[in-house]
Structures are given as structure tokens and as C-alpha cells.
Amino acid sequence: MVKRFFYTLILVSASLLLISWGWRGHEIISNNISLSSTMKWLQFSLWPSYLADHASDADDRKDTDPTEVPKHYIDIDNYSEFNSTHTIPQTWDAVIAAHGTYFVNNEGILPWATLATYDSLKNAFLHSDWNKALFFAADLGHYVADGHMPLHITKNYNGDYSGNDGIHSRYESTMVYYFNSQITYLGDTVKIIPDVNQYVFNYLYQNYSYVDSILIADDYATAAASGSTSGSVYRNALWNKSKKFTILLFKNASHALAELIYNAWVEAGSPPVGSVGINEPVVNNDIVIQSYPNPFSNSTKISFQLNEYRENISLSIYNSAGCLVEQLCDGEYDNGMYSVNWNPGQIKCGIYYVVFNNGNAANYHKMVYIK
Fold first, then answer.
1. Which residue has the higher pLDDT, 163 or 289?
2. Which residue has the higher pLDDT, 141 or 40?
3. Is 358 in contact with 310 (CB distance < 8 Å)?
4. What is the pLDDT of residue 43?
5. Phi-psi group of 342: left, alpha or beta (phi > 0 → left; psi -120 to 50 → alpha; rest → beta)
6. In which element (H, E) is residue 166 found?
7. What span, in angstroms and rounded, lies between the C-alpha atoms of 8 and 61?
8. 320 pLDDT tier (thresholds 50, 70, 90)
9. For FRET with 163, which of 12, 35, 97, 223 sits at 20 to 30 Å CA-CA?
10. 359 secondary structure, DSSP code
11. Tens digits of per-residue pLDDT, 215-246?
12. Domain 289-369, CATH
């Protein structure tokens, strides 16, 4: 049997758009979190935009960190007890004692990666380390989102066992990319979680129940498209058949993320937040930065607007790890609209940021480089 490990590696090398809800799906889930009014008052309202921008950082690490891959899934139906009791051993020690390290890692460690990241977030809150808190919250958002993507919870993740070959990317990336504007969520009130371990496993058990629904929707859409699994007829049929539970999965993912962040903060003693960490640039709304196309495969045109006379500005490209990739502009410019083409050349695919700075304020813009 070809394991998910190899499937994930193939997807990483092929395209970032084919990974766990796609970058757009992860962005939606993290951006739609609704924290408590107390946390908003303490400037947590600034968090969603950061978490959305960094929602796919965990995916970006897959091609450089092999330990990252199994954190994004669990083939839960390969556990014999799950098929009879709909549960598995839920603590790390218990599952290792029952099945051994090799089996557990081979089947994916999504729930335990989620819980470990939650503990790291709580510890960062406890020490008022807001840089680390934001980092772990972004990763937590990714793992929670993966836990709400049913095909990340089954051995039949790509339809190989049911005649639905290729459904994984068709559902989580292609369909979501075309219909993401219909996925909206206003947010529910967050509450204290009595048992975080049980909370995480409960949503995994619940979301597994949608695996068959996705496969049924794929069969329906394929029949509607006369056997084709591409094109607008197939996509529209797949969305119409699955949109009700897909929107619910997105909503539940955003709510679970908000509730876990809130709970970690409360368990850490509700530390006051004077300023939010990870030194994000101060946004100057008079500066407009855009790139087209985005995502792009060869080159992209980056445009920016200057409204002050003779500004000293810099325009730089950074990767998702914060390392400078290329300096595009550096010097004095008059007011007006400017454009510059960026060709990444031989660098690897991934998420990149174009950062504009005039010494007083800065803007940044995310771009996705694919092949």
C-alpha cells in the first residue's frame, strides 16, 4: 500500500495548491476565528490577519522537515479498535503502548501534534512570549483545519479504495479555490474547554463521518459530467452536493481554533497583552501593493503607489522563514505608480512576501509561487 507519507511528498513537489484545504482554505479558517470580547479588548483582534497570512507555514516546512509530514493526517480507520468502538487510545503513551511507535507514526500523528502545539501555545502565553504565541497559534490553526478535512482522517484519503482516485485535491483544493467566496462565517461565542484531549478527538471522530459524504458527492458529480472529473460541470455538481457540510466543516474549524486559543490563554492565567508580537510592519494605507498573476508560475508583476514627493524606499522579497531572497528596489523615487517584474528563477516553490518600506511605515503582500 502506498502510504500517505509518499502521497504528501508528491503533492509538496507538485504544487502548494494541492495541500490540506489548499492555502486559500487554510487562510479562510484562520481569518474567520472569533475570539472572546475580553481577548479582543486586549488587542487579540489583530491576530486573525496574521494567522491567516501564516496559516500554511506548516505545509511549507514539509519539503525540508520530514518530521512535519505525519503531523497533518491520521489514517484512523487503520486502527482496529476504531472500526469496532469508533475510538482509539487518546494519549500518546497509551497509543504507543497499544500499537508501537512505528505504526503510530506511519498512520499519522495529527491529534497528538495538535495537542502538543496547544501545550506550546499555552506555555508561550504563560511566559508572555507573544512572538512564540503567534507562531504556535498559526501552526495550531493549520492542524485544527487539517482535522476538519475528512480526507485527512482516513486511509482512503485519495479515493483509492472506492474508485474515487484523485478526489483529495479535487475536493479540498480545486473546488474550494473556485467556490471560496461562498464560505462565510460570523463566529460563535467561545467557551472554556473542560478536556482539551477529548475535545480534539471528538471533532476528529465527528469529521470522519463525512468521508462517505465526500465520496458520494464525487460519484454524483462524475455522473453529472458524463464520467469526467474536471471542468465546470463536475466542479459545480461537486460543490452543490457537498457545500452544506463543507461550509459547516469550515465554520467548525474556525470555531475550534478560536476556542482552543482562548482556552490556552485562560489556562495560562489570562495574561494581559500590551502589544502583539512578531514584529509585523506598520501598515501605511496610502501605499498600494499588488501582484499579478498570483499564484504565478513564471513571473509576477509587482505594483506599488507612492504618494509622497521623493521618498527613499525599498522593495524586497522574503521567503516564509523571513530570509531575504532578493532586493528589487532601493533608493529615492518620486510620487506615482511603479511596477517591477519578479522572476524567481531556480528557487523552490512556496509562499513569498514582497515587503515595501519607506523608513516610516511598511506594507507586505503575500505571493504564491507554483510550477
1. 163
2. 141
3. no
4. 59
5. beta
6. none
7. 12
8. low
9. 12
10. S
11. 999 999 999 999 999 999 999 999 999 999 99
12. 2.60.40.1930
Residues 341 and 364: their CA atoms lie apart, in Å, by 16
C-alpha pair distances (Å), 29 with each of 111, 246, 350: 18, 12, 20
Burial 305-331 (b: 16+ CB within 10 A, else e): ebeeeebebebbbbbbeeeeeeebeee
Residue ranges covered by each domain of the chain:
4-267, 289-369
Let me know: does 73 contact 109? Beta carbons within 8 Å. no
Q: Side-chain half-sphere of 26: how many Cα atoms within 13 Å?
A: 30
The CATH number for 4-267, chosen from 3.40.630.30, 3.40.50.1820, 3.40.50.2300, 1.10.575.10, is: 1.10.575.10
Task: Quickly tell me which residue has 476565528 as its cell.
Answer: 33
Instruction: Write the single-letter amino acid at 129.
Output: D
* Alpha-helix residue ranges (DSSP H) falling in 32-86: 37-41, 47-53, 57-60, 80-85
